[in-house]
Amino acid sequence: MAGIPFPPGITNNDIKGFGSSALAALDPTTNLIIKFPFVTTESTKCDHEREIYERLERSSHPRPPSILNFHGTTPHGILLEYAPHRTLRHYLRDLDTPAPISMILRWADQAAEGLQFLHENGICHGDVDCSKFFVTEDLNVKVGGFTRSTEATSDGLKKDIVDFGSAVYYMVTGYMPYQGLGGEEREEMFRKHEFPDLMDVELKAVIFPCWAGSYEGFGGVVGDVRGYGRFLGVV
Fold this sequence. Notes:
Low-confidence stretches: none
Shape: globular
Oligomer: single chain
Number of domains: 2
CATH topology of the largest domain: Transferase(Phosphotransferase), domain 1
């Protein structure tokens, strides 16, 4: 990683993850994640994410615990809560056996509640999937990854819900809908309402309405996730 402008005290050994424009490193002195750009002159996405976190900090709406905690900024990047199990996608990939449905319901509930909070604040996440849900020490999930977040629009709000359905599908099956198709091809299938077969898929009573556009907002999603849990007797 030669040439990358590491913050003071941060080395290659501290890197915990990376995206298209930034690295995430664990600061050993604070036990916080510092997210910083690959190149100091290309900090636009990090700056945008900082603005989203700051906006959520100012919110008058009750804040759920399932939003990744923001701890301010430094001249080098933004400071975020450390989730030691990394993303939910990584966590699920590393499991030897599938996660129990009770745990999947808890994750789905937490993620939906976090996304509902975003929408209440006029923000679309814009990139909902299991790589944007972060797993804490006690195996709860928190929503983060706001580099593609935008002002809320009707289409953007609907897309977040559709993508949430696909995230729950991944939690249950271990793979994305239409595995092997590119992103644009997958979106075209969804626009045509040509959905994957859900006959033997757990949580289809939540996944299908997300895909079909049946929900007006995440309040309905949260209600159905919790109702499904009560039906199964796991909440």
